[in-house]
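2024-03-11 09:14:02 INFO queue: dequeued item Allantoate amidohydrolase, len=398
2024-03-11 09:14:02 INFO validating residues
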Amino acid sequence: MTASGLLAEIGDVGRDPKRGGYSRHAFDAPENDLRAWFSERALGLGLDVDTDHNGNIWAWWGPPGPDAVVTGSHLDSVPGGGAFDGPLGVVSALAAVENLRDKGFRPAKPFAVVVFAEEEGGRFGVPCLGSRLLTGTIDADKARGLRDADGVTFAEAAARSGFDPALIGPDPERLGLVGKFLELHVEQGRGLIDLGAPVAVGSTVIAHGRWRFSFEGQGNHAGATLLADRADPMLPAAATVTAVRRLAAGVPDARATVGRLVPTPGGTNVIASTVDLWLDARVPGTATPALVEDITRVAEAAAKEEGCRVTVTRESYSDDVVFDDTLRRDLGGWLGTPPELPTGAGHDAAILAGFVPAGMLYVRNPTGISHSPEEFAESDDVEAGAAALATVLERLAR
Ligand code: GLV
Ligand code: MN
Ligand code: MN
Ligand code: MN
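2024-03-11 09:14:37 INFO prediction written
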């Protein structure tokens, strides 16, 4: 089966008619369907499938063991996301295994395809949750207590999906098997369009994090409350949104976004009692926290002016990552020196990179758009990516 053929098989799973694109969130019905589909496909290729303590699925080609060559990505999406972010790396891995197997290759090293849980943080708020738990880069109790929009905790969701919540946490034994990790991913900007190339090797991931700003005011009647009598948390929230753009524009190469803002209770004729907004801030190097401090100062002043309060909570943060030099050089050599690309997107490979040599391959996205239904990859490029992945996996595992 080709990578495009495999993608087509899951093309109807988790479509979101309201937002467009796909909404597939950790352990929800569509994501569970994709997990089952992956396991079935992997078993069909003769791989042995198991799920770790943290909800990551591993499909082993031959017996598990140390110094394993591991490749994969994720099957969850952002709300209303595209078809490629995540699944492309998973289907390309399956296609690469089939291709290598059919030409008679058998890995000399342990070899696994992995599907990481909750990469987007779309349900529980922390991106790359499965790989952070595997590597112990998030506290297990914090992870267990993360809540989705309905108040369900990660521990409860895990229990409902058949995992023991008590076992959620660092998994040094499993991590100790990983010798090298490789993730293929659709490109999320226009780097490869500009370079005129179908595939690139990843170079760096910029530092990034998420902060929650909770504004508290006085819920009240939209008609009966005079303007002078209001403590409307929407005002400091709005001032914060505009400050995010203004302040980020003054920091070289910064990206800062408010993509989610929730007024409670959320009625047209109701002054909100609280407004929560989430800041996604990313600056190369060490400048992200300082930018967030500047934004926080504006939020505090605006809250005070309106008679409101604001609480700022850091939900996640990751430093800059440079992918392993030797692996990058090897990948480039084996693939005929494709271009190297930095990215502003976060990935499980960047979490793993703190522990094992890790690398990435990107596949051209002709729209340059991602985290949107318009994300795309031409099937020729998809196949070029899967072929490149097979080439490097063969080299790494022989
Ligand atoms: C995940 O895709 C992210 O970079 O937000
Ligand atoms: Mn994504
Ligand atoms: Mn992704
Ligand atoms: Mn990502």
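2024-03-11 09:14:37 INFO annotate: The CA atoms of residues 93 and 177 lie 18 Å apart.
2024-03-11 09:14:38 INFO item closed
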